[in-house]
Amino acid sequence: MGKGFFNVPIAVNEPVKSYAPGSPERDAVLKTYKALFNSQVEVPLYINGNHVTTGNTRTMSPPHDHKHVVGTYHLAKQSHVEEAIATALEARKTWSQLPWEHRAGIFLKAAELIAGPYRDKINAATMIAQSKNIHQAEIDAACELIDFLRFNVQFMTDIYAEQPESTTEAWNRIEYRPLEGFTYAVTPFNFTAIAGNLPACMALMGNVVIWKPSDSQVYSAKVIMDVFEEAGVPPGVINVVFGDPVMISNTVLASPDFSGLHFTGSTYVFKELWKQIGNNIHNYKTYPRIVGETGGKDFIVAHRSANAKQVATAISRGAFEFQGQKCSAASRAYIPSNLWEDVKRYVIEDVKSFKMGSPEDMSNFITAVIHEGSFDKLAKYIDGAKADSDAEIIVGGNYDKSKGYFIEPTVIVTSNPKYTTMCTELFGPVITIYVYDEHKYVETLKLVDETSEYALTGAILSADRYAIDEATKALQNSAGNFYINDKPTGAVVGQQPFGGARASGTNDKAGSAQNLLRWVSPRMIKETFVTPVDYRYPFLG
Ligand code: NAD
């Protein structure tokens, strides 16, 4: 910064619009939805600011209407990925030297573009691409992405302001340099906000990026790129390639200039990428930063003192919103025997009241799961539960992929606390419940801690403070985001930094300064004012 210590706007969370019947935002988003749904878009690669078409394309279809085509996207060859890397490294020469206030200005502008002129489009695109109902689209594609962009600017300046002590003899300064080389963002299908944030936060800190979105999110990724372009992200700073993830990752990770991976997705893929980075370690110019937020097997534990209606609501919302396709979605619950009959009745009532169908019909709470692979996997586990003697489906259990990938919200009750669906991440609208002896709370907490390899989110519901304290201690390492008397989903940027440990990731807390710190390499500068001219110290006489 040259000529001032600039204050950035104080970050505030974007208010969530209601989309209630009769509201102007409801009409506007539906109009945009219809226009997008009934037209076709062509999505190019983005390399050095150019829209690159390769002739090798794949079609895009909404999960709730999979025979309907809303466009095509172009697939990269290895040479495109290599070009994107070369381009990024060239762009780095100017981008990494640009004063921070200009980087801040670009991403603050992106936030306001989404809050205003692009809001309907990014929400409608997310409803189409990922089959989100309007509320789920609004809290993700609009609000969370806006929040990431605004708060990251504030976090960046907080980091820059973190400086060492100086003395009268020497002035100590830390410069938060971007990483040397280029970075790689690999993003999941389920959150448009995560897709935008992973490349944007690295670019904000002065890095250049190759971004590989999920095949199932390309349609809404295009809107993110439209916004970044209009906001003024210069050519070559964020380059986007679609296509074979293995080829793209092999090409990226083979480059000696690869300097950081920002990944969100499944645990297996992340571990494979980590392994590959390890295998290539002798080839890199620097030690690459590795940040990954991955799977979860998120829990709800109710204590015998809990309110049954509150427990049931935490299950209905926590497990089934966005068809359970949130990394934080509750997928196993432990209910004490004294509450079970009431919780069961309320949950069944709730689930039976859910309407399922296209997000265009705004009375639908449940829409489709993301793709056929996910549908088939969920159907297999549901069939398994129907056949297994230690499992019982108490509501749901049907599925139909004739028009869209629709899985009925399903509640499995098991007598075996280690039943397969108590341990495995299914990533769909299925929760498994284990009813425990109300007097075996301590043993149950131990069980919760030991049942899964993951440690992302979890919730305790209780009216008893001692029981809450007991759970907080016993489950200290079982969740990176722990909720007391709430559902385990719905983290808000700037309020609940998000991430888990164990197999759930590196826990670098998206939506916090901690995450941004991973994308800089500090340089310590000591400036001595009166430089010594004699090597002898006084003790030498
Ligand atoms: P996924 O692992 O299938 O895909 C994630 C990304 O990795 C995509 O871009 C995909 O194309 C890419 N990929 C897939 N195979 C690859 C390979 N062999 N090499 C390189 N890249 C590859 O995950 P998904 O289905 O998109 O998302 C769901 C998963 O993401 C769940 O496990 C969920 O828990 C997790 N998730 C975690 C968080 C979190 O914050 N912890 C947030 C969202 C999603």
Question: Can you tag this structure with a few keywords?
Answer:
541 residues, alpha/beta, Aldehyde Dehydrogenase, Chain A, domain 1, Aldehyde Dehydrogenase, Chain A, domain 2, binds nicotinamide-adenine-dinucleotide
What do you see in this structure?
The structure is a single chain. The protein is of the alpha/beta class. The chain folds into two domains: 24-294 and 505-525, 3-Layer(aba) Sandwich (Aldehyde Dehydrogenase, Chain A, domain 1), CATH 3.40.605; 298-484, Aldehyde Dehydrogenase, Chain A, domain 2. It contains 16 helices and 23 strands. The strands form seven sheets. It has a seven-stranded mixed β-sheet, sandwiched between helices. A five-stranded parallel β-sheet has the order 9-8-7-10-11, sandwiched between helices. The protein has a three-stranded mixed β-sheet with strand order 1-5-4, covered by helices on one side. Helix 4 (119-130) crosses helix 5 (134-161). 50% of the residues are buried. Bound molecules: nicotinamide-adenine-dinucleotide. The site of nicotinamide-adenine-dinucleotide has 31 residues, from helix 8 and helix 9.
